[in-house]
Amino acid sequence: MEILAFGVQSDEKPLIEKAFQGRHDIRCLDVFLTEDTAPIAAGHEVISSSVNATLDKRVLQILADGGTRMIAQRSTGFNNIDLRVAERLGLTVARVSYYSPYSVAEFAWTLAMAVNRRIVRASNRTRDFDFRLDGLMGRDLRGRTVGVLGTGKIGEAFARIAHGFGMRLLGWDARENPACRELGMQYVERERLFAEADLISLHVPLLPSTQHLIGAAALRMMKDDAILVNSSRGGLVDTEALVAELRAGRFTGVGLDVYEAEAGLFFLDKSLDTVTDDTLARLMTFPNVVVTSHQAYYTEDAVGQIVDTTLRNVQDYVAGRRNENVLVPAAPTDG
Questions:
Q1: What percent of the chain has pLDDT over 70?
Q2: 245 is catalytic
C-alpha cells in the first residue's frame, strides 16, 4: 500500500521515510491538503495530513470520492477536521494524541524570555554593530506571578519551569492537575488570573468554548506590563483586539507561535508576496511582539514521536484495530 503524506517539511521527510521503510511505501509531498490539492490523493486508501491541513466538507468529499478511507493526521489538535462529515462518509480519522510536552512548553518559555529580555531587538542591533542598551531592559521573573491557562501535560511542563524560576503559580482549567497543585499552583477564576499574572501562557485546545478566550474583555483585565504567550492555537486570541491594545501601548511583550488566520501562510515562503493580511502586517510592526511560524512542537524528539504514532495508527487501521488515537472509526471493531 502506498500512503500519501501531505505538508511534509524537509526536516520531517527523512524521519517519515525511515519509520515507514519496510512497512509501507510512502510518498511525501510538501504541498498542504486543501480543496485544490485533495484530488492528488485519488487512488490512495490512506493519506496523512499536517496540522495546517483543511479538512472541511468539500475536501473530505473529494478524498472519499477518490477512494481514501483513512486519514492519519500528524498533530494533536483536530479543530481543522469536520468529524461529522468524516463519519458520514465512512472515513477513519486518527490523530497523534500525545508527543513530548516539553517541546511546546520549552518553546513557550523561549518566547516569554525573548520578549522579556528583548532578544530579537538586541540581536538585530548587534548585527549592525550597535551595542547600546537603550530600550533593552527586562525584568527578573523570580517572585513574579505566572498564569497558566490549561494545565494538562504541556501546561504542567510549563508550570514546572516556572516553579524552577521561583514564580508564584496561578492556574485555570476545567479539571485541576494534582501535579500542578504539588508545585504550589493555586487554581483561580480566569478574571483573577488575568488581573494578577505578570506572564500568561495559553495551553488549552481550540474548541467553540475557547474560541477568542483572550478577547477584548480579557485583554483589558490584564496588567499593562503583562507578557502574553500563545503556543497552542491561534483562534484562542482575538488578534484584532490584541492589536488594538498594543496600539494603546500596553503589554511588555507578546509571543505568538500561532495565529488565527495562519492557514495558507505558516510553513510557506511568502517573502516575495504582497502581504494581504492587514492584521498580521500590523502585528509585525510592534517591537515588543515576536511571531514564529507554529514551530513549538518542532524538535527531533517530538517529531519522532509524531511519526512513530502516525505509523502505528496506519498499521492498526490496516490490521482492523482501533487504538486510542482514533477520532472517527469507519466501522466498529473489536481491536
A1: 98
A2: no
30 within domain boundaries: yes
118, 203, 233, 250: the catalytic one is: 233
CA 183 from chain center: how many Å? 25
Q: Interior CA angle at 98 toward 93 and 99, to 5°?
A: 120
Model confidence, pTM: 0.90
Q: Are residues 105 and 95 in the same domain?
A: no
Give the span between the Cα atoms of 289 and 13, in whole angstroms: 31
List of residues 6+ apart from 53 with CB closer than 8 A? 6, 7, 32, 33, 34, 59, 73, 80
Catalytic residue among 12, 196, 260, 262: 262
Letter for the amino acid at 284?
M
- pLDDT above 90 for 104: yes
Give 43: exposed, middle or buried? Use CB within 10 Å, 0-12, 13-18, 19+: exposed
Q: What is residue 118's three-state secondary structure?
A: coil
Q: Which residue segment(s) compose the domain that 77 sits in?
A: 2-99+299-328
Q: Active-site residue among 74, 168, 250, 294?
A: 294
Active site residue 117: no
In a shared domain, residues 131 and 219 = yes
189 is catalytic: no
What is the CATH number for 271? 3.40.50.720
Answer yes or no: do 175 and 227 share one domain: yes
pLDDT single digits (tens) 255-296: 999 999 998 889 888 899 988 999 999 999 999 999 999 999
pLDDT for the residue 330: 59
**84 and 117 assigned to the same domain:** no
